[in-house]
Amino acid sequence: EVQLVESGGGLIQPGGSLRLSCAASGFMFINAYMTWVRQAPGKGLEWVGRIKSNPDGGTTDYAAPVKGRFTISRDDSTNTLYLQMNSLRTADAAVYYCTTGHRFWGQGTLVTVSS
Amino acid sequence: DIVMTQSPDSLAVSLGERATINCKSSQSVLDSSSNKNYLGWYQQKPGQPPKLLIQWASTRESGVPDRFTGSGSGTDFTLTISSLQAEDVAVYYCLQYYSIPRTFGQGTKVEIK
To answer: What is the DSSP letter of A30?
Structure first.
């Protein structure tokens, strides 16, 4: 059974940093492209970025609103996906989901950005 | 970026009646070499992550009731719920995975009339 479990969310002040994690199991993580999607309270879904599998180069792509501030990385030895978020803004407040192939999704972790 | 526009933003349908949601992309999401449309449909209920219903515009995911049907090609797509059930109350999103950045439609809220 595919499982994706996000963690690391919480309350952070504007300008601060936070690192989210996504623990994956039940599939070949090493070969999977992994994606972060977010959803602001009461709003729609927004693609944040993705990381290719390391066998396919391990490169990353980001949405314009987060490019240069967010970094996606992965640890294939522990089947964990990360989202490093710097220079956080109030507009970044959302539930952050990790997903593989846009098919399997975690339950999400809530990030609140407020002073 | 490909802009995905859904219509309507919300609709109320009687139980057992048909619900139709449209999704239009600002450019084609059809890959001519594979003849596949890189378009998915998702259902999201309150407090839950999105659930993939349809991929490749018309391929129903395993376990998804056959009252859900995806159709369309190129830039115009439709999700049809043939006979609305109470458990279908949700927000529905389309997603294009043809190009980076991936983009979602704004969502369509389906309610019972």
So the answer is: G
